[in-house]
Design a protein that fits this description.
With about 100 residues, the protein is of the alpha+beta class. It contains three helices and eight strands. Helices cover about 20% and strands about 45% of the residues. The strands form two sheets. A six-stranded mixed beta sheet has the order 5-1-2-6-8-7. The termini are far apart. The radius of gyration is 13 Å and the shape is globular. It has helices spanning about 40-45, 50-55, 70-75; strands at about 5-10, 15-20, 25-30, 35-40, 45-50, 60-65, 85-90, 90-95.
């Protein structure tokens, strides 16, 4: 299964999980006024299997998922509604809130 970049940020009692296709780190995509910046600080981290990254979703307050393949997989598994996916320059982005 696909390897992804995983960065888990724990701050002020909240857990933020960022999952990204590693080849997108360091790139910026724009669509009109919307800018998607895939920076190392936010999305860089350890490379892990997609299954492990997805296993952290239920324990997170907010999840950011970036990349066509992994967002499509998140939709397929029911983590993300298809109409909740944003696409910028062909790159898919989705957020999950468990507040």
């Amino acid at each position: 299964m696909r390897r992804v970049s995983l960065n888990v940020i724990r701050q002020n009692g909240y857990v933020l999980v960022n999952i990204c296709e590693p080849e997108l780190i360091g790139k910026t995509f724009t669509k009109g006024d919307i800018k998607l910046v895939i920076n190392e600080e936010f999305y860089g981290g350890q490379e892990v299997g997609l299954e492990y990254a997805f296993s952290l979703i239920d324990g997170a307050n907010v999840v950011n998922i970036v990349g066509k393949e992994i967002v499509d997989e998140a939709v397929k598994r029911g983590f993300v509604a298809k109409d909740g996916v944003l696409e910028i320059e062909g790159i898919k982005f989705a957020q999950i809130y468990n507040l």
